[in-house]
Structure formats: C-alpha cells, structure tokens
Amino acid sequence: MMDAISAWDIMVSITPYLLCVIAFFILIEQITYLKKKKSSPGPAFILPFLGNVIQLMKHPARFWENEAKAAKESHFGFSTNYIIGKFTVFIQNTELSRKVFANVRPDAFHLVGHPFGKKLFGEHNLVYMSGQEHKDLRRRIAPNFSRNALSTYTSLQQNIILQHMKKWEGLSIQNGSKPIALGFLCRDMNLDTSQAVFVGPYLNGKPREEFNRDYNLVNIGMMSLPVDLSGFAFRKARLAVTRLIKTLGDCVQQSKRRIRSGQEPVCLVDFWMQELLKETQESVSDADEMPRPHPEILSKIRQEVSGIWSPESDTLITSENLRAMKYTEAVAKEILRYRNPATLVPHVAGEDFQLTESYTIPKGSIVFPSIFESSFQGFTDPECFDPDRFSEDRQEDRLFQRNFLVFGAGPHQCVGQRYAVDHLVLFIVMFTSLLDFKRCRTDGCDDISYVPTTCPKDDCMVYLSRRCTRYSHKVELRSHENVGA
C-alpha cells in the first residue's frame, strides 16, 4: 500500500515538470515552423506533432485545393504547411515548379516521388539517383522505348485490352440496369498490360497472383500513415516491395537465358537485356482516366479511327496506325493535361534553396511542385476540355510547353512518355470502337479522388454495351503468338 501511494506521489510531483517539457517542445516546434514559414502563406498555428495531416488524410483533394488557393491569392506562387514533423512547400507557379525540376542534384533538391519513398522503396531506386550514375542508367533504359520496341508492346497490349473489355461487357450485362465501376477495372487492365509489356512470358501462375497482391499492398501503404510497425499498412507495403523486387529479379534471370539463346525480344526486359548483353560483350572485347464524354469529340475519334482500323478487320493496330491518329492522340494529351494521373512530384530540399528573391526553402523541407496547377496556366481557356489545342494549327503543346509538365522536366523527365501516350491512344481507340458507354452522373461524381493516382470520386460509374458486330479472334491469336515467341 505504501509503495502504491509512494508511486502515485511521485507521479503527481513530476507531472508539472512533464507538462512543462511537453509545452516547451510544442513552443519550440511552433517557433521553428514560423521561422521557416516567414511571411509566406500558410496556417499561423499548427497542431503539435501532427500538423495538418488529419485534413490531408481525410480530404486530400480539398487539402491540395486549399494549398493552391492560398498560393494564388497571396501572389507568392507557393504556400507552406506542416505535416507529421515535416515543413512543406506547395508550389503552384509553373516557373517555380520548373526551377525545382531543373535543380535535382545532391546540393539542391532530391526527387523522392513519395514523402516517405526512400523508406518504402529503398535508397538505390532509380528515382533517387543523380549525376553520372543516373545518366548512364537512363541511357541503358532508352532502347526499351525505341520504335521497334514500342511496336512489339502495341501488339501485346491489344490482346489484353480486348480481353478486359469483353469482361467489362459481361459484367455490364450481369448488372442489368445498374452501372459498373470502371475505375478499378481500368487499374486491373493497366496492371495486366504493364506486366505483359515489362516482363512478358516470365510472370505467370502463382508468382503473378503474388505480384498482384503485393502491388495492391504497396498502393494501400502509399496512402497510409508511415507507421513502420507490424500489422500497419506501411510495414506491409515495405515488405511487399522486397518481394516484388525478388519476383522481378527472377524474371530478369529468365530473360537473360532467353536472349543469350539467340531468341528475339518479346517484352521490355528483353530489349533491356539485349542491349545490356551487347554492351557487356563490347566492353569485354575492348578490355543497361477518360473524362466525361463529349459527343462531338467522341464522333471525331470514331470517324478518324474508322478510316484507319476496324474491330472486324482481324488485324492488329500498328505503331504506324497510332502515329496516323492525330486527333485521337490530341485527345490523349488533353486527358493527361486536364486530369494528370499524378498531380504532385514530391522533392526534399537537400540544402537551403533560394526559390524567390524574398524566400529561401529551408533544408529538409518536403517540396511539392504541382503538375496539376501548371496544367491550368498559360493554355487558352484552360478550364475547357479542348483536344484541338494540340492540333497542328494551334500547337499549344509547343507554345505552352513549359506548362505541360505531365512527364516532369529536367534530368528526371519520364523516359517512357512515348509509351504512356501510345498506351492511352490504344485504349481510347479500342474502347470507343468496341463499346458504347454512358456515364452514370451523380452529384460530385467527377471530383478528384486519390488512390494513389487520381480517378473520379465515384470510381467512374458507367453503362456499357457492345458496339462492334463481333470481337476479332485473329487479333487475340496473333497477340498470344507474339507473347509466346
């Protein structure tokens, strides 16, 4: 009894001191934040330790809208905030965003892709490389996106897209008068096409199922709090990344054996392996989302496509066909501008960096250049969905090139952007040719949701029905033969 009373007395006696220590740390945290913030727009008071992470996790789209609004109304072109012990800088102005992209180097900004990406993906990921090592790796990757490689990928993608669209039609029939959610169906289709293009015949059966499961865990982890403890989503994601690396490593070894045996490349890893082995031999001899339908736009797409390709033709869409579909490509680019898949590109300030004449970003800050905000600057009537802005007559993709940052800028600009555009054009061609569709409209259905890339808030609810008279069986066969070659 005396021991219990004594322990209680000790707790009572030290409580004021503990509260003073906590209050002191809260005060220091607040002062440090205000010192970094200076006169820039941002909250005057922050919640201790957490900052504004609750608003970010609860309503991410609204949070970033408020950041952009503060940046615009202040005319600073950026705003500041505080999230889980990290001072953040949101950049709305295009020229300031390009300044960040152009200064990715050890003594300025470090591209991280995700605020806690290094912990999730590891220190040696391509995203975090810089200097000559980064340049050499990009040079080795470039052959993966040559004209010959892109042509191979196009044939692989068509069979997978066709199979998924047939599945979507079946689901729509099963649902009767109810719409189907297209968002996650598109994600599954993109995952399948990516697997076929990147690792082709080397990922099948159980490894493929495990890959899909781990990929889903990574997506969930990226949207969760970075709590690296057993049972938490972030820990599950980090362990899933380790397993994904091992699975892909096994695919690389299979590709190496195939290319060494003299067989032709059938997927991206084969093209990379072919170039890598060639380089090795040389060194040894010398001592690697559709927005809401616009009827007139849809009509123009179908008219253009019908003059080049037909679903009933039993032929593959070639890379040359895609190049000829100028209007459809303009639609694809406008989709990417109007609804960027990734709206922000997180960087970390490796050193103090003078962003403007009056403000220096403190070392250690997380900096968010906004691709989304840049997409609505400069362009003619940017709030309007207008594919003609990318036509040969208007050429807004050249006139406002500095604002079109969908694929980034500077040393880390996306090396696979031609592949990404081709994939989207191919999807648009097949979706509009094979299926009729009608959007199920509800209040707020087009609001942006992060999962972690952007998609409509309602998961894109649509009614689908078959448009073509029949699906091409020969296209399926030829694509399959290409994969198994």
Task: Describe the fold and architecture.
With 485 residues, this protein is α+β, with helices and mostly antiparallel strands. The chain has 2 domains: 2-128, no CATH class; 136-340 and 375-483, Cytochrome P450 (Cytochrome p450). It is 53% helix and 9% strand. Strands 1-2-8-5-3 form a 5-stranded mixed β-sheet. Strand 6 (353-354) and strand 7 form a beta hairpin. Helix 9 crosses helix 10. The N and C termini lie far apart (81 Å). Its cofactor is heme. It catalyses: 5-dehydroepisterol + NADPH + O2 + H(+) = ergosta-5,7,22,24(28)-tetraen-3beta-ol + NADP(+) + 2 H2O. Keywords: Heme, Iron, Membrane, Metal-binding, Monooxygenase, Oxidoreductase, Transmembrane, Transmembrane helix.
Describe the structure in brief:
By secondary structure, the chain is of the alpha+beta class. It contains 18 helices and 12 strands. 32% of the residues are buried.
Give Rg in angstroms. Answer: 26 Å
Structural class: alpha+beta
The proportion of residues forming helix, as a percent range, comes to 40-55%
Per DSSP E runs of 2 or more residues, the count of β-strands stands at 12
Tell me, briefly, the overall form: globular
**End-to-end Cα distance:** 81 Å
Mean pLDDT: 85
